Amino acid sequence: MGNIALKCKFPRLFSLCVNTNILLELCGAWESGVWRWNLVWRRSLFEWEKTHACQLPEEVHGMSLVLGIDDKWSWKGGASIEFSVNSVTVC
Predict the structure, then answer these.
(1) Residue 61, C-beta contacts closer than 8 angstroms, at least 6 positions apart
(2) How many CB atoms lie within 10 A of CB 87?
(3) Where does residue 73 rank: exposed (0-12), middle (13-18), buried (19+ CB within 10 A)?
(4) In the prediction, which pLDDT does 90 show?
């Protein structure tokens, strides 16, 4: 998200995930045209962790998930052939 990975922004939640190598698309499902997260934890979350778990979907809420369309990245090549994170856009 932006300049920081979700695992860095929510390190505690990342450490509690059952599978830290799973794709985000496998962390939920479409129900009646609405994306529903289904995150699986290794143990029950403490109250303060639940607060972070509620913040996580809010953090990615601005991302446009569209049923039937895969996420993709594109590179806006500039005058130079060099690649930088700033030259990547998520489509």
Answers:
(1) none
(2) 13
(3) exposed
(4) 47
How does residue 19 score in pLDDT terms, banded at 50, 70 and 90?
A: confident
Q: List Cα–Cα distances, 31 to 6, 27, 55, 60, in angstroms.
A: 24, 13, 21, 18
Q: What is the 3-state secondary structure (H, E, C) of the chain?
A: CCCCCHHHHCHHHHHHECCCCCCHHHCEEEECCEEEECCCECCCCCHHHHHHHHHHHHHHCCCCCCCCCCCCEEECCCCCCCCCHHHEEEC
Q: State how far the Cα of 25 lies from the Cα of 66, in Å rounded to an integer.
A: 11
For position 5, what pLDDT does the model report? 81
For residue 66, give both structure tokens: 């569209």
What's the pLDDT at 45? 94
Mean pLDDT of the chain: 77
Q: Contacts by 25-29 with C-beta closer than 8 Å and gap 24+?
A: 25/71
